[in-house]
Amino acid sequence: MEQNRAKFGGKLSAVLVAAGSAVGLGNIWRFPSVAGDNGGGAFLVLYILCVVVLGLPLMIAEFSVGRATHQASVGAYRTLNRRWTFVGYNGVLAAFLILGFYYVVSGWTLEYLFQSVSGTITQASTPEAYSKIFENFHLDPWRPVICAWIFALMTHAVIALGVQKGIERISNILMPLLFVMMLILAIHSLWMPNSWDGVKFFFMPDFSKVTAQTVLMALGQAFFSLSIGLGCMVTYASYFNRETNLRHTALNVSLLGTLVALLAGLIIFPAAYSVGIFTPDTSPTAGPALIFITLPAIFNSMPLGSLWAAIFFLLLVVAALTSTISLHEVITAYLHEEWHLSRKWSNALTTASMLVTSAVASLSLGVWNHWRICGLTIFDTMDYLTANILLPLGGFFTCIFVGWLLDKKVLRNELSNEGKLSCHILPLLVFLLRWVCPVILAIIFLDSLGLFR
Ligand code: TRP
User: Fold this and answer.
1) Cα–Cα distance between 27 and 58 in angstroms, integer?
2) Quick one: pLDDT band at residue 130, thresholds 50, 70, 90?
């Protein structure tokens, strides 16, 4: 199995590919709006704590499971312990559902990129007008679906090129490009008049807004934005080579993810305060509105607005693409290894099922809005079910499995690259995985079921 399996090349590739999965709409779109709603700097502190205490150990655990077995998530858990194969299946199901709605939002970024390039994005004048444009786009039965499909086909094309020529190469090109675009945009925002108010808003901890709910939001955000709990990192690590240092890779990926989230805040808030869309007295709107309604209005009030809008939405498309690739690969690798289909057919089957699922998710926000499951649209149900139930469950079982059941020799081997590196952190890692992570995750999970409200 190990000999003829595709492998990522250099040391940097492992970091860039995993960071490509982690950095996505979660960091650039979701983080600034959630942070804005939950006390700015205070949320930041909590988020960083969660990344360190929960995210890092779990990522190392997932990397170890993947590289020890050289198999995608279902096969990896089965090889280590047949009874725990369900953790792999849970991940494939979650990947399927996340990808269904992720393609929809990715499609919106594509639509807004088209609008920026064609200049139509700067034609409205008030935030209300932008809100109307977003609403009309949603209600159109075809356009959002077609955008989601284009995105799925782009992802299909990368996966079709294979693990090295597709996934690895595209991450090595796109990730540096993404950082450069982010730096340019952040410097530009900070350069604008009165941008300082936005910086203050983003960094000043307002601990009065912190509640138990905020802590749980920070945990959920850390999870989603590091791509853990789903076997995504297991699948990617199965392509790591023997020399990859798992600890360093996990550390770098977490640092890059956090950095991107910070830069996203530094792009959005200073600009929003500078053009007067946000003022020190009005609190910002969160959720989809921030990126698709507030931001176009901000770009509109800047000189060369369409250009900045085009760079920003290209950035979002790039970030989303490297994340959809990782989710698509989880399903494709599963079909390839478990159903013994060729990679070509596995990819085709994944794409075909995603065309249907993403169309349903997209239409559930527009013409099929009246179809509800417990009051939620199909889109929101997919979001809720994955972020609040399947991911925490996957993370919880991963900690229990790696912390309590997995032979410590396997973990030691993976951390030390068969004795070549020191592994002082092993006792700490095991302690976190055995006790700290499962307890915290159990709390998130019970909270998501509404037990603490
Ligand atoms: N981390 C990505 C983001 O922030 C989304 C993502 C990709 C993901 N793969 C994942 C989330 C696996 C959870 C699990 O946008």
Assistant:
1) 18
2) confident
Count the Cβ atoms, other than its own, within 10 Å of residue 134: 19
- Which residue, among 395, 64, 46, 76, has the nearest Cα to 247 in the 3D structure? 64
Query: Dihedrals φ, ψ of 6, to 5°?
Result: -60, 145
In this structure, the residue with its CA closest to atom 11 of ligand 1 is: 227
Q: What atom in ligand 1 is closest to the CA of residue 320?
A: 15
pLDDT digits (tens, 9 = 90+) for 139-176: 888 999 999 999 999 999 999 999 999 999 999 999 99
Ligand 1 binding pocket includes 227 (Cβ within 6 Å): yes
Task: Determine the Cα–Cα distance for residues 261 and 116; give it in Å rounded to an integer.
Answer: 23
The whole-angstrom separation of Cα 387 and Cα 219 is 11
Q: How many angstroms separate the alpha carbon of residue 192 from the centre of ligand 1?
A: 32
Atom of ligand 1 at shortest range from CA of 232: 12
Give me the amino acid identity at 375: G
Q: What is the mean pLDDT of the chain?
A: 91
The 10s digit of each residue's pLDDT in 98-128 is 999 999 999 999 999 999 999 888 888 777 8
Stated as kind and residue range, the H or E segment containing 18 is helix 11-22
Q: Count of alpha carbons within 13 Å of 190, Cβ hemisphere only?
A: 13
Torsion region of 5: left, alpha or beta (phi above 0 gives left; psi -120 to 50 gives alpha): beta
User: Cβ(261) to ligand 1 under 6 A?
Assistant: no
Residue 323 CB–ligand 1 contact under 6 Å: yes
Q: Give me the amino acid identity at 197.
A: D
Of all protein residues, the one whose alpha carbon is nearest to atom 8 of ligand 1 is 227
* Cβ 230 under 6 angstroms from ligand 1: yes
> Contact, 83 vs 405, CB < 8 A?
no
Best mutation site among 23, 108, 224 for ligand 1 pocket (most ligand atoms within 8 Å of CB): 224
387 CA distance to ligand 1 middle (Å): 10
